[in-house]
Amino acid sequence: MRLEQLQAFLWVAETGSFQEAAQKCNVTQSTVSRQVQALEAEVGAILFHRSNQAKLTLAGECLWPHARKICQAWENATQEIAEMFTGKQPELCIATIHSVCANYLPPVLQRFGRHYPEVKLRVTALGSDRILKVLKDGLVDVAIIMNNDLFTPTSEMIVHHLYTETIEVLMAANHTLAKYKEIPWAELIYYPQVIFKDGYGMQRLVKEQFEQLGAKLNATLELNTLDAFRGVVRQGNLIALLPSSALLDARVDPTLAIRTIAKTPNISKISSTKDSVWSRDVVLVTTSDRMKIPPIKYFCKLVKEIIPPRVTQVKSSKLKVQSHL
Question: What number of CA atoms fall less than 13 Å from residue 237's CA on the CB side?
Fold first, then answer.
C-alpha cells in the first residue's frame, strides 16, 4: 500500500467522482483509477460502486476512517518536521554536570530565552555517565559533561571542548591541611574524603588518580550536590577533591578553605611531562542531526561563547576531542 493510493481513495470518496478526484490531486483520471484499483487489490475488496456517482461499498466505508487517520497522521508528521527545521521547536532538553548548571548555564539560558521565548527549556543536572546514557537514548538534545577516557564519540556525535580546569581541595577553614598553600599528595591521601556518588565522572576521576598513585582512597561519604559537599566539609575533618568550577561559592565562604594540589609525579596515563597538574576537561556533546535545528544550533553557539566566563585555562595532554562545531 502506498500513501497516494489512500489519498486518491479519500478524494474519490469525498467528491463522488474519479474525474473530480483527479482534478483535486492534479493528476489524470486514469492515474486515480489505477491507484484505487491497486488499493482494492491490496485490501482484497471493491471499495466503490462504479455508477453515475462513485459510492463507497461496505468495504470502502470500513476503510474510510482508517485511511483518514493515516493520511492525517502523515500530514501532521511532515508539518512538524518542516516546522522543526524552521526553528519551531516546542522544547529543548539539556543535561549538564552540576558545576556548569549552577555557575555557568544561567546567562546562557537567559539569552536563549530572549531569542526563542516560545521554546520551553528543560534542564537536568546529572553525573557525566548518566548524561551520556540519556543523550544516547535520545532523551536530551545537548549534553555538557566531563570528558573521560571511557567516552568514545560515535560517528553521529559532535563534541566541542569548552574548558580545562584544575582539581582542588575543599576543606574547613580550620582544617589541618589549610596550613599548606599547595597540599602534597603524601599528606592528602591520609584524610577521609567525601566524594560524588556512582555515575558521576568525578568519582571515577578521583578513584583513578589514587589508583595510579598507588594510594588508598579513604572515601567515607558519597553525595551528589555541591551544597551538600560544602555543608559536610564545613562541619569536620572531611575533605573533598573538586574541580575549580564547583568551588566558586566556597571561595567567598569564610568557614571554608580551598587549596591547590602539588604537582604529581609522572604517571603515564596522566601526563607525558615530568610533573602534572591534575585537571579535567569539560565538553559539549550533541548529534549532527540536532545541529541542523536552529534553536539547538543557537544554544550550542551561546554555550561556546559564554562558558566558561572565568575559568583558569590549563594545558591538558589528555584532551582527545575533535571539534566539529
Answer: 8
Q: What is the pTM of this model?
A: 0.72
Give the CA radius of gyration of the chain: 30
Out of 6-10, 108-112, 190-194, 227-231, least confident range: 6-10
Q: What is the mean pLDDT of the chain?
A: 85
Instruction: Name which of 84-93, 241-250, 297-306 the model is least confident about.
Output: 84-93
Percent of the chain at pLDDT above 70?
90
Residues 6+ apart with CB under 8 A from 323: 159, 160, 161
Domain positions in the chain: 3-86, 91-162+281-306, 164-279
CA dihedral (226, 317, 308, 257) positive or negative: positive
Q: Cβ distance 290 to 142 under 8 Å?
A: yes
Q: Topology of 91-162+281-306 in CATH?
A: D-Maltodextrin-Binding Protein; domain 2 (3.40.190)
The highest-level CATH class for domain 3-86 is: mainly alpha
Gap between the Cα atoms of 163 and 183, Å rounded: 24
pLDDT tops 80 at residue 266? no
pLDDT of residue 309: 67
Domain 164-279 is classified in which CATH homologous superfamily? Periplasmic binding protein-like II (3.40.190.10)
